Amino acid sequence: MPFHTVARLFAPWRNTCVDNIELIVLATTKVGENALVVHTLSREHGRRGFLVRPGKKAGMALFLPLNILEADVVENPKSNLWGLKNILLKDGLQGIRGNLYKNTMTLFLSEVLFRTVRDGAFEDGLYEWCLGSILTLNELESDFSNFHIRFLLELAGALGFRPSFDDIAPFAKENLRDLKPFLERGFGESMLVPLSGASRNALCECLLQYLSYHTEQSIQVKSLSVLRELYR
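and the corresponding structure tokens:
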């Protein structure tokens, strides 16, 4: 066998780069001093973590919860942990970042997605629904206090178990009357359902129990306590 053929067979693997995909940031995990694993949702890879070394110029601002990024994926045939490079913020989400209530809500929504959608999972249409939900929240100028309740119900549908009145009743219990309009009305009308802060918090908790039951995992959302304070 010619030498150049042998050399090619035993040459080290080279990383391959896939150009320009769109990702939604769910969470980050620090790795060492200068690296992060960015947990994302994308059309191409579903729920997946990528290794990133943030530059000093952009820093952590790129990786705020529910940020929409564009990046090149660097595949590593020797590891399941791939990387990202040439990372750009696709949408600044000024309608969210400039509003304390919406910003706090994104902490909750991103953590729910992070704890509900399993790593490596592909759910048909989930990315498109999630992207549409983020852009809708960004555009709403008022009447968005019920958004996270509607989000949890629609997430159940996006994951394949669309909630019905009878299905959700054992979880809602005494809160069923407050939840009923969200099951019967469209998005716009459900944003106008009058609720106290305590009622919103109670609905959140029962919907998280519903998601936990159907995904067969305990969904413990730490940022729920922050949301409770906001909607007391």
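(Above: one complete record from the training split.) The chain has two domains: 16-91, 94-230.
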